Structure to design on (213 residues):
């Protein structure tokens, strides 16, 4: 059974992102996707990896260097895939807005992630080979922004636009070959009052998040 809980945190001046978290880069996302689908034929994935992340070098820089080939890309990709650790989360920064205060529950209406939430590893304005989209499986567990009424009133005065900023951690769970999409599970969300991510106001923490396969 998976248990999820939330931990209230007073405003502090530190961003407790996991020390070993992967950057959500296009290359890291592609490596994770390739490892998840475990393709029988690696050739198409090596081709994308070679053209996008390890472009061939046509000329030597010096007598001590050699041109990079597709064979080199295959070796690099195989090594990166074998070393990728699904226990270490990705981290991505995003933002959101909280809603009205619920006096009976002593919390703001707030959904930091939803079934519609997704992140692209490439630019939002284009889609290139190797771009991966991440969607989330366990978003219903994360809701509400607890705060006592007096603190909530002060917070709204300080944040009339109701914007908050987040560091979101997630671990890849599964993928379907050909989809260019990773299904992931959120493991932690740190919510901050400021865009510099220094004033922590709340932490959602996921416990015992296991992969589906």
């Amino acid at each position: 059974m998976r248990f999820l809980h939330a931990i209230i945190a007073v405003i502090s001046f530190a961003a407790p992102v996991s020390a070993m978290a992967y950057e959500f880069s296009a290359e890291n996302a592609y490596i994770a996707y390739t490892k998840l689908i475990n393709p029988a034929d690696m050739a198409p994935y090596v081709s994308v990896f070679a053209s996008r992340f390890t472009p061939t070098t046509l000329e030597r820089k010096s007598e001590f260097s050699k041109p990079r080939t597709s064979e080199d890309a295959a070796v690099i990709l195989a090594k990166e895939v074998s070393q990728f650790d699904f226990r270490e989360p990705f981290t991505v920064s995003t933002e959101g807005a909280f809603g009205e205060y619920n006096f009976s529950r002593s919390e703001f209406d707030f959904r930091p992630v939803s079934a519609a939430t997704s992140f692209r590893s490439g630019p939002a304005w284009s889609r290139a080979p190797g771009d991966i989209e991440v969607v989330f499986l366990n978003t219903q567990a994360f809701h509400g922004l607890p705060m006592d009424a007096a603190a909530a009133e002060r917070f709204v005065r300080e944040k009339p636009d109701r914007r908050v900023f987040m560091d979101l951690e997630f671990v890849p769970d599964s993928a379907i070959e050909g989809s260019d999409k990773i299904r992931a599970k959120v493991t932690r969300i740190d919510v901050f009052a400021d865009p510099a991510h220094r004033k922590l106001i709340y932490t959602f923490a996921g416990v015992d998040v296991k992969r589906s396969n």
Q: What stands out?
A: Confidence is low (pLDDT under 50) at residues 1-16. Residues 3-25+87-207 form one domain.
